[in-house]
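Quiz preparation item.
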C-alpha cells in the first residue's frame, strides 16, 4: 500500500519533470534567459523556482536535510521580486539551473524512499507534500506554456491536433435548485483552498452546454461589442479603452474572418473551438451582449460535480475516475482547445460538456476562503490572495495537467489577465 503510493508519487514527479524538460529544452539558452513578456518570468526562472520549492518542502522540511543552495532562496521567492524585475536578477544560468533541479530531485527521491508516509503527519499522509510539489511544478509548466505562446519566432513545440467533434452540443442545461456539497475533505491532494466540503444552496439556473466558441465570439465582435459600453462594466470599459482591446489576444484580421498565431503558427481561428485568451471583462461583456451572465463559482462546481441521481458530488463531471485522454483535453497533449462536442465521454450526467480541460473558465466570483478554511501548509499558497483583485477560474485548460485539475480545483487571476488559457461559458437564472 505505502509502496504503491511511493511508486505513484515517484511516477508523478517524473511526469512533471519530463514536461518541464520538454518546455525548457525546446529553446536555446538565449531564449531561456530572455523575458518574452514583462508579465512573465524568463523560463529559466520558472525552472529554478520549481527546484527551489521542491528543496524547501521536500528536502529541507519533510526530509530534514541540509540546504542544497540556501543562498538562492531569495532569488526564487515569488513574493520578493515582481516578474518584470526577474531578468535583471543574478539568476542561475541554464546549465546551473538544470544541475540544481537535478540535484534537488535526487535528494527528494531519497527522502521519498526513507520517510514514512505517515497518516499521523498531515504533510505526509497520502504523500501530500509530494503531491503539492507535483502540482506546483505542473502549474509552472502551464505558466511556461503560456510564456511559449507569447514568445516570438519559429515554432518549437509540437503536438497532435485535438480530436474532432463527435456529437452535436448546443444550447443550455437546467441545473435543478437545492443544496450540493462544494469543496472536498476526501480528495487526497486537494490544496487548502478546496477544503472543507460544505453545503451550498444553489437556486436553479441554466448553464451553457459548452464553452463559448470562437464563432460566437466573432459575432459579438462583428456586432460592435467592443465599441458599445452598454455591454461592459464600468471597470471593464475603462480597461477596454486603456488597453485598446478589440479582439482576443493573438487574434488578427484575415480577410473577413480572423486568424490567430498559436505557438508560432498562424492559421484561421476554428469557429467551433472554445474562445481562449480573453480577460474577465471581455467574458463579462460577451455575456451581457448575449443576454446572459457568467456563472458563479458555486454554480460552475455544481454543474461539474452534482449527480442528480444520488445527490452526491463527484470528483469530475463523468464520475470519480481519474481523467483519461477520452474524457478531457488536458496535459498539453494538444496545443489548442478541441471543438465543442469532442469529448462526449467527459460530459456531466445532465449533459454539460467540456467543463474539464480545453479552457479555464472565468466565473463571476472573487477568490475567498470556504467556511472552515484552514491554512495548509503555508499562507503564501492561498491565504494571502483571498479578497484580492482576483476572479476564480475553473476546469483547467489544454495546458493543465490532470494532477492539477479536478472538479474542486480553484484557479484565480486578475480580471485583466489574458495570457492564460482562459475562456468562459454563460449562465442565467432559471426563473
Ligand atoms: C494558482 C495558478 C494562480 O501560478 O500564481 C505557483 C499557482 N502558486 N506557484 C500561480 C502557484 C505558487 C498560482 N495559481
Ligand atoms: Fe510557484
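Solution:
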Amino acid at each position: 500500500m505505502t509502496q504503491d503510493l511511493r511508486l505513484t508519487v515517484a511516477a508523478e514527479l517524473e511526469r512533471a519533470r519530463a514536461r518541464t524538460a520538454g518546455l525548457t529544452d525546446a529553446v536555446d539558452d538565449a531564449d531561456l534567459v530572455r523575458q518574452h513578456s514583462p508579465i512573465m518570468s524568463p523560463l529559466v526562472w520558472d525552472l529554478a523556482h520549481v527546484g527551489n520549492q521542491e528543496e524547501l518542502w521536500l528536502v529541507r522540511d519533510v526530509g530534514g536535510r541540509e540546504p542544497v543552495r540556501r543562498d538562492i532562496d531569495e532569488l526564487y521567492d515569488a513574493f520578493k521580486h515582481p516578474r518584470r524585475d526577474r531578468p535583471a536578477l543574478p539568476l542561475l544560468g541554464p546549465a546551473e539551473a538544470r544541475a540544481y533541479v537535478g540535484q534537488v530531485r535526487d535528494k527528494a527521491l531519497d527522502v521519498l524512499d526513507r520517510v514514512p508516509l505517515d497518516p499521523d503527519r498531515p504533510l505526509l499522509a497520502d504523500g501530500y507534500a509530494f503531491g503539492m510539489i507535483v502540482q506546483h511544478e505542473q502549474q509552472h509548466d502551464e505558466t511556461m506554456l503560456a510564456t511559449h505562446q507569447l514568445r516570438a519566432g519559429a515554432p518549437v513545440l509540437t503536438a497532435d491536433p485535438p480530436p474532432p467533434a463527435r456529437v452535436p452540443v448546443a444550447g443550455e442545461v437546467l441545473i435543478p435548485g437545492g443544496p450540493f456539497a462544494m469543496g472536498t475533505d476526501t480528495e487526497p491532494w486537494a490544496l487548502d483552498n478546496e477544503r472543507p466540503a460544505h453545503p451550498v444552496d444553489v437556486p436553479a439556473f441554466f448553464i451553457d452546454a459548452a464553452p463559448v466558441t470562437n464563432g460566437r465570439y466573432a459575432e459579438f465582435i462583428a456586432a460592435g461589442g467592443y465599441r458599445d459600453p452598454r455591454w461592459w462594466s464600468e471597470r471593464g470599459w475603462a480597461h477596454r479603452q486603456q488597453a485598446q482591446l478589440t479582439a482576443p489576444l493573438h487574434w488578427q484580421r484575415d480577410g473577413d474572418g480572423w486568424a490567430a498565431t498559436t505557438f508560432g503558427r498562424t492559421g484561421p481561428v476554428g469557429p467551433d473551438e472554445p474562445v481562449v485568451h480573453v480577460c474577465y471583462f471581455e467574458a463579462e461583456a460577451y455575456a451581457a451582449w448575449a443576454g446572459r451572465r457568467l456563472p458563479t463559482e458555486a454554480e460552475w462546481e455544481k454543474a461539474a460535480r452534482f449527480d442528480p441521481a444520488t445527490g452526491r458530488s463527484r470528483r469530475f463531471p463523468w464520475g470519480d475516475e481519474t481523467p483519461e485522454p477520452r474524457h478531457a483535453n488536458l496535459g498539453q497533449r494538444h496545443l489548442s482547445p478541441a471543438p465543442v462536442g469532442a469529448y462526449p465521454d467527459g460530459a456531466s450526467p445532465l449533459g454539460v460538456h467540456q467543463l474539464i480541460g480545453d479552457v479555464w473558465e472565468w466565473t463571476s466570483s472573487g477568490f475567498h476562503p470556504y467556511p472552515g478554511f484552514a491554512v495548509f501548509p503555508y499562507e503564501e499558497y492561498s491565504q494571502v490572495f483571498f479578497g484580492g483583485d482576483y476572479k476564480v477560474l475553473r476546469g483547467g485548460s489544454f495546458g493543465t495537467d490532470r494532477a492539477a485539475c479536478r472538479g474542486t480545483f480553484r484557479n484565480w487571476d486578475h480580471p485583466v489577465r489574458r495570457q492564460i488559457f482562459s475562456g468562459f461559458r454563460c449562465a442565467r437564472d432559471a426563473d
